[in-house]
Amino acid sequence: MTTLLEVKGVTGGYSYNHAVIKDVSFHIREKEIVALIGLNGAGKSTTIKHILGLLEPIAGEISIAGKTFQSDPENYRLSYGYIPESPIYYEELTLWEHIELMAMSHGLDREVFYERARPLLKEFRMEEMKDRFPQQFSKGMRQKLMIMMALLVQPPLYIVDEPILGLDPLGIRSLLTWLNRCKEQGAGILMSTHILATAEKHCDRFIILHKGEIRAQGTLEELRRMTGLPDSSLDDI
Ligand code: ATP
């Protein structure tokens, strides 16, 4: 299996003299969903910000499909789809204009754009919101906009930060169905989450962060073996 994301010995944070994450290493291959798990403040979002290229590591290296942010920032950014924890949007653009902008910035042609955009609007029950502005949306609807924008461009790698918070049950089901479909088609997905039951059901591997360091990583079976708790769930680990 091809490695899509490689995080190698990354130490980093918000300033050069204070490391929030320390010597973090893991990878994501194609056709897998990997959960990034940890308590509040463990460093999940900080790790994600380094992967996105928003923070520069103090030490270590991150590459997506062999490219680093430092060597080729434009192509690096195009190689992942990001679903943020807090929706980011333009007040002056409608829902449809947001997804159109996303398509244009990724060079999707018109026909492909329509082919992909319509089913997404339908799946997330947002067709009636098409010409409305995100300020008029609930938090969950804004989250659906972020999800549709990421899914539209079908990147090889998805970075998903706390995707479930704020979504209604149908939205959660749609998101998880689409992510599983993307995985079957070859995508790799890194998903930060607090919801352990969802992680256990949908993720192939788990990375457990504690105070900025990786405490353990592996499949559920491997984690159980490591902890010597054969029937344990992620809650116990
Ligand atoms: P949560 O589950 O609550 O979102 P998290 O695992 O994503 O937590 P981070 O947001 O990465 O954790 O926070 C890790 C540490 O980094 C915390 O001590 C936090 O205070 C600090 N931190 C987060 N954002 C900033 C920032 N913008 N500037 C400085 N420190 C920050």
TrEMBL record:
Pfam families: ABC_tran. Residues 5-236 form the ABC transporter domain. Keywords: ATP-binding, Nucleotide-binding, Transport. InterPro entries: AAA+_ATPase, ABC_transporter-like_ATP-bd, ABC_Transporter_VariousFunc, P-loop_NTPase. This is ABC transporter ATP-binding protein. SMART domains: AAA (SM00382). The keyword Ribosomal protein does not apply. One of its GO terms (molecular function) is ATP binding.
